[in-house]
Every structure is written in C-alpha cells, then in structure tokens.
Amino acid sequence: MTAITIAIADDHPLFREGVSRSLSEIEDFVIVGKGASADDATTLAASHRPDVLLLDVFMPGGGIDAISEIMSRSPQTKVLMLTASEEVESLVAALCRGAAGYVVKGVGSRGLAEAIRTVVGGSWFVSPSMRARMVEKSLFVERTSLTPRELEVIELVAKGLSNKHIARHLDLQEKTIKHHMTEILSKLGATNRTEAAIRWRQGA
C-alpha cells in the first residue's frame, strides 16, 4: 500500500496535534510536517512536497492567500482546506485559487480520511453542508467544474502566459496544455483564450 504523505497548517496547537494524531493512526497516512502560519505552509510544501496539505482559512498570513504559493512550490500537492469557516465566499475563493477541497472542522477522522483520499485520487471534495449552502445561495461558479490542473492552467492564462510558458511552469508537455485548454474552452463555453480568461475572472 502506497503511503499518503500529509502536512498540516493550523494556528491552533491543540487542534493541529489532534488532527495529526488521528490521521497518523491510519495505516497508509504519514504526517510529514506541521505548521501554524501561511509562511509555514509554503515552507512545508517546498521542503516536504506532501501529497496533501491541510490548510486553515483563518491563520497568520491567510490560508487562502497562501494557496497559489504552495502550488507554485509543490505543484503535485493537493491543498485541502480544513476550517471552521462555513462562508460560501471562502469556499469559492479557495477553489478558485486552486484548492482541491474544502472540509468544515468538526468532521470525524473517517470523514477527513475520505476527503484526503478523494483529492489524492484527483477528484474534488466539498463537505456536504457546504454543498448545500452553495445550492441555497445559488453560488455555483462555472470554474468549479474544472479539474485542479485545469484551474492551474486557466489561472496562468489569465496572467497572460502562453501555452509554452505554462508548460514550462507546470513541467508539462505543450500538447498537454493544449488538451487542457480545449477542455477549459468547452466547460466555460468560450471560443478563445481571452474569452475563457474573462469568463473565469467574472466568476470570482
């Protein structure tokens, strides 16, 4: 069984240690580092390159603001928000920045383990209570249908990077980026890169 490496960034020591103990008891989970701030989170990403980084929203430096830097330092890491915030705006902001999932604190170890396995497998995970809030507020955003990798690509497109430069940035083949762009255009109902970037930004 291949181990899943996990890092935890949360500024509440008791919570952080409790999550660490609970997850370390699961056979194929390995805790590789812990931190208390956004700066700690980016350092953990760079030094340990974990499969999953559990990240709080409200912490010194701001969890959501740290997502882009974390993914820049360790593109393969899945950022999974683990937070007390049940604000839909926080959820949408986190997903738009590139988080692979959003879990509300209070979840049991089994539920958290399911979320971790889901994002490691390449799928999105959002706590059921938050999905319900999104429906209630009609705040589904087109971009949430994009895969984590497609989100990375469209974010770089919106910054003005060419396919060639995006491929270099993500360490992928240029033809792979072209494939992702085809999917992005289809999902966003856009006819070109500029229109896709505009639609994506408007969904923020």
UniProtKB/TrEMBL annotation:
InterPro entries: CheY-like_superfamily, EvgA-like, NreC/VraR/RcsB-like_REC, Sig_transdc_resp-reg_C-effctor, Sig_transdc_resp-reg_receiver, Tscrpt_reg_LuxR_C. Keywords: DNA-binding, Phosphoprotein, Plasmid. Residues 139-204 form the HTH luxR-type domain. Pfam families: GerE, Response_reg. It comes from the Bacteria. The keyword Repeat does not apply. This is Response regulator transcription factor. It comes from Rhizobium beringeri. The modification 4-aspartylphosphate is found at residue 56. Residues 5-120 form the Response regulatory domain.
